[in-house]
């Protein structure tokens, strides 16, 4: 694809390079990742077009269902907590599961956006 040229009021033109599919997906993942992080911090809802709204923390856990790696990681966190391992160990395992879950949720939301569905974030009522 060629570059896009957009005229400016002063008579010059801004040249924008057109993103390929991988670059577009990477930017979408970055933007949605920031939105998911903010939604988790603010305890917001995630609204999916043609689907139900869900609390961000619930959507995070739901995104890992069916993902064997994420389910195994969560089971490891629970097993470590039940075994009364040091809190630093449990916290580290939870953090690793959390990073995996956020990536999975972000990827799921990006898939919906690429399919033309709207995904929005909003405050809980």
What is the distance, rounded to the nearest whole angstrom, between the alpha carbons of the first and last residues?
A: 45 Å
Helix content: 55-70%
Dominant shape: elongated
Record field, number of beta strands: 5
- Strand percent estimate: 5-15%
Low-confidence stretches: none
Q: What is the number of helical segments per DSSP (H or I, 4+ residues)?
A: 4
Number of domains: 1
Which class of secondary structure composition applies to the elements? alpha+beta
Q: What does the radius of gyration come to?
A: 19 Å
What does this structure look like?
By secondary structure, this protein is an alpha+beta fold. The chain has one domain. It contains four helices and five strands, in the order ββαββαααβ. A three-stranded antiparallel beta sheet has the order 4-3-5. A two-stranded antiparallel sheet has the order 1-2. Strand 1 and strand 2 form a beta hairpin. Helix 1 (21-42) packs across helix 4 (87-114), helix 2 (56-64) crosses helix 4 (87-114) and helix 3 packs antiparallel against helix 4 (87-114). It is elongated, with a radius of gyration of 19 Å. The N and C termini lie far apart (45 Å). The model has no long low-confidence stretch (mean pLDDT 91).
């Amino acid at each position: 694809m060629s570059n896009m040229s957009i005229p400016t009021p002063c008579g010059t033109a801004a040249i924008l390079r057109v993103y390929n599919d991988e670059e577009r997906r990477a930017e979408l993942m970055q933007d949605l990742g920031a939105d998911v992080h903010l939604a988790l911090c603010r305890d917001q809802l995630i609204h999916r077009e043609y689907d139900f709204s869900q609390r961000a923390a619930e959507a995070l856990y739901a995104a890992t269902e069916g993902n064997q790696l994420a389910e195994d990681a969560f089971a490891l966190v629970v097993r470590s907590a039940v075994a009364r391992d040091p809190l630093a160990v449990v916290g580290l395992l939870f953090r690793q599961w959390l990073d995996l879950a956020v990536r999975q949720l972000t990827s799921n939301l990006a898939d919906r956006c690429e399919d033309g569905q709207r995904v929005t974030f909003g405050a809980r009522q």
